[in-house]
Design brief:
The chain is of the alpha/beta class. The chain contains 16 helices and 18 strands. It is globular and about 65 Å long. The model has no long low-confidence stretch (mean pLDDT 91).
Length: 440
């Protein structure tokens, strides 16, 4: 029996964003496989059999524009070979980028390779406090430019006007689907999109203040061939598909029957310096975790880092181990000065640091697999998956919104959590450990 047509294929600009989207779909009973660095012509059948959709992770968010576009196009070539009903380009719900960044160029590339002359940019995720109104983007009620995202070490967000911001990244005309159309439902949204097409608008930012708006936007998106944005698609597209008869009833636990490598101890690798992750780290430290605090300059300049053997021994003893980067203002300023002195951008320095820490964690895991490995931070998670040799993951339900439990189906089968730095409650690590325990 042949594989039925996939409902969707998504291309995500980092691994945490890919797992965020896939976990939202899994929560709605949709079986999704996450694949890293797929190459055109590669045989994906052993991984995607029985799946409703595929998410391709490219780790392109912080890469130079030309390389980001090349990776995105390679992933879309893989997606086109699968002939899905809908193509998605996934990026962060905080529109992580710089004015000369990669969202516009990769969206341009996706539209060109699919031959599309209209699509939407829909980053809002109300369940996690990301909303858009009059084209302005908010994080938990604060303008993006007033939120902690303004301090992001790689992509500081200082322009909350997404119509203007995206317009600076693309030569295509950018417009807005306003609240007044969105609140009236899918038919009004589709009518507005038809009007925008007549006005030669090619990309529309979409206002969204609540889940009901997100559901209406996703329903209308079923009439598109290409859409872009955050993980709200995973929350609301399945219901729209079921209304159309494209999707059956919710599937059983997608991780049931997954093989796992026996492990000891629990390992958290926190490369993110976000406010949310810093609070989560402090919560874990207060409960007796063994902590290794890495100085970015020391590991980059002199190779000074905790010994992988020591971390492996601590895991073997059943300890909870936290490996984190120092995130004080002084430490961040020292790392910026180190990069500037060597002619490196913040992005280049951040990627180097992520790869160094990923190598350390991967070596520790090879010596002693943990019961669960939690990685906090987009670039650090991307580097870690590649250091571990992970190519594909089965995606379970969300531990908390946007953060699912995953099990590699290639590479070491250690239960894995790839968490955006900004996601999760203060006690998120507790919830993640409990989810791994329930796997049995």
């Amino acid at each position: 029996m042949s594989q039925p047509q996939l409902l969707f294929a998504a291309v995500a600009d980092d691994d945490t964003g890919a797992s965020d989207l896939a976990g939202m779909f899994a929560d709605q009973g949709v079986r999704v496989v996450l694949i890293l660095d797929a190459e055109p012509g590669e045989d994906l059948a052993p991984w995607i059999g029985g799946a409703h959709g595929v998410v391709f992770a490219t780790a392109a968010r912080a890469l130079p524009r030309e390389l980001a576009v090349a990776r995105t196009l390679a992933a879309f070539d893989c997606a086109k070979a699968l002939d899905p009903r809908l193509y998605l380009l996934k990026y962060c719900s905080t529109f992580d980028s710089t004015e000369e960044g990669n969202i516009g160029p990769t969206l341009d590339a996706a539209m060109a390779t699919l031959g599309e002359n209209f699509t939407i940019a829909f980053p809002a995720l109300p369940v996690n406090g990301r909303t858009t109104y009059c084209g302005y983007h908010f994080v938990k009620g604060q303008l993006l430019s007033d939120s902690p995202m303004r301090l992001h070490p790689l992509n500081p967000m200082t322009n909350p006007n997404l119509v203007d911001f995206l317009g600076r990244q693309t030569s295509r005309r950018v417009g807005l689907t306003p609240y007044e159309a969105v609140r009236m439902g899918p038919a009004a949204i589709l009518a507005h999109w038809a009007q925008l097409r007549q006005e030669k608008v090619e990309i529309s930012i979409v206002d969204c203040l609540e889940d009901a708006h997100a559901a209406a936007i996703c329903d209308a998106s079923c009439e598109l061939r290409l859409a872009s944005g955050g993980s709200a698609f995973g929350m609301h597209l399945p219901a729209a598909w079921r209304r159309r008869g494209w999707l059956g009833e919710a599937q059983a636990d997608p991780l049931a029957g997954c093989k796992r490598t026996p492990g000891r101890g629990r390992l958290v690798a926190a490369g993110s310096c976000s406010v949310a992750t810093s609070r989560q780290n402090a919560w874990l430290e207060a409960r007796g975790a063994t902590v290794h605090s890495i100085d970015a300059v020391a590991i980059l300049d002199r190779g000074e880092a905790p010994a992988a053997e020591q971390i492996a021994q601590e895991l073997a003893a059943g300890q909870t181990v936290l490996v984190k980067t120092r995130s004080s203002p002084e430490a961040l300023e020292a790392s910026r000065a180190w990069a500037a002195a060597r002619g490196l951008t913040a992005q280049q320095m951040g990627l180097q640091l992520a790869r160094r820490i990923a190598s350390l964690i991967a070596e520790s895991v090879r010596m002693q697999p943990p019961e669960i490995l939690v990685s906090a931070g987009g670039e650090s998670s991307s580097a870690l998956c590649r250091a571990l040799g992970v190519r594909a993951l089965a995606i379970g339900k969300n531990i908390q919104p946007g953060v699912p439990l995953c099990v590699p189906i290639s590479g070491a089968a250690v239960p894995l959590v790839l968490k955006s730095g900004n996601f999760g409650s203060e006690d998120f690590y507790r919830a993640a450990f409990e989810a791994a325990t329930r796997l049995g």
